[in-house]
Amino acid sequence: MSSKNNKLWLRNIVALVAVSLVLAVSLTIADTYTWYTGPTLDGITSETQITAVSASDTRTTIGLKEKVDCSIDPDTWEDKDCKNDTETVYDSLGTKTWTATGSGGTVSPSSGDITVLTADDDPGIVMVTFTGNDSSDPNYYTGEWVITAKEFNVIAPEGEDTEFVDWHPVLTTAARFKAQLTPTTVSFGNISVEEQNGDCSHDGCWFDGSLIPKQESLALIGSCGVANDNYWAHDVLGWAPVSINYYRANPTPTPSAACNTFKGQDMHVVEGSSGVYAQNGLILSIGTTTIENERGCVSSGSKTWP
To answer: Are residues 72 and 87 in the same domain?
Structure first.
């Protein structure tokens, strides 16, 4: 009887040891994750905050100080990993980092799905780069990332087109002009412009002994902001009534009262160092009964005055 009990007891001990060994093996064998295909992500999409006159908002050539919304679609992220060599699992998108390199602009914020590129106030090339990393979750294959980039060309104004607007309603001898910066394929709505004295100015109405000082420099009234459609206004040109009356009463050369004054005008971008973008000739004409003003080869037309 004792021998039978001993065998039963021994059998139970062996069974318990076997179960313990199975449990121990189960506890020590962890899931393994390996690389499968590597992560993928759609590229950067961009849209300018200002619509240019003659280009789409998805353009990558932009004006000085323009702003561009740049984004990625996190739903297009896919990172396939392999679990235990038998099962496909999908890791999620982790950290999202934005950077800007080159001489053309900066981005902010530096993380997230969306950032804003702000172009510099000088021309240049800027590369906007997004880096997406995997979740770094140890339950997946870690250390994977995707890099996608987009290049933007930042340009300065190349000139301006002048338009006659009207004769000033108060300063009745002065013509008002407006100008549109070119090219119109970008917006310069975040910059300002100003005039400076140009070359070759000549007051053809002045004469020795004239009581009216020689007029060969500009008034330089300060800077003017540019609108989103690249227009700035107004440039007001004209002789003062007292000067017109004086030169008509004291014509030179005798006996004609007609005379012209030419002023050189250099147009500058206020911000940055791009400098002169346009040079205009301003012509102020006094006739015996009429006046006429011209800016950049665009005339106000003749006006009878008074």
So the answer is: yes
Identify residue 167 by its one-letter amino acid code: W
Q: Measured between alpha carbons, how far is 53 from 212 in angstroms, rounded to an integer? A: 44
Tell the residue number behind the tokens 């003659």, with chain if given. 54
> Which of 247, 238, 240, 241 lies closest to 211, judged by CA?
247
Which residue, of 112, 131, 155, is where some domain finishes? 155
Q: Which is nearest to 63 in space by CA: 152, 230, 187, 191?
A: 187
Same domain, 297 and 167: yes
Q: What residues make up the domain containing 43? A: 31-155
Q: Are 179 and 161 in contact (CB under 8 A)?
A: yes
Quote the CA–CA distance of 297 and 279 in Å, as a whole number.
11
pTM of the model: 0.85
Domain final residue, candidates 107, 131, 155:
155
Mean pLDDT computed over 243-251: 91
CB neighbour list of residue 85: distance below 8 Å, 6 or more residues apart: 32, 34
Q: Can you give the CATH number for the domain in which 78 is found?
A: 2.60.40.10
Give which of 188, 197, 191 is closest to 221, Cα–Cα: 197
C-alpha span between 63 and 188 (Å, rounded): 5
For 166, other C-beta atoms within 10 Å of its C-beta total 10
Residue 131 has pLDDT above 70, yes or no: yes
Query: For residue 34, what pLDDT is reported?
Result: 86
Q: What's the full length of the chain, in residues?
A: 306
The pLDDT of residue 30 is 79
C-alpha R_g of the chain: 38
Is the separation of the CB atoms in 134 and 94 below 8 Å? yes
Count up the domains in the chain and report the number.
Answer: 3
Region of residue 57 (phi > 0: left; psi between -120 and 50: alpha; otherwise: beta):
alpha
98 in the same domain as 47: yes
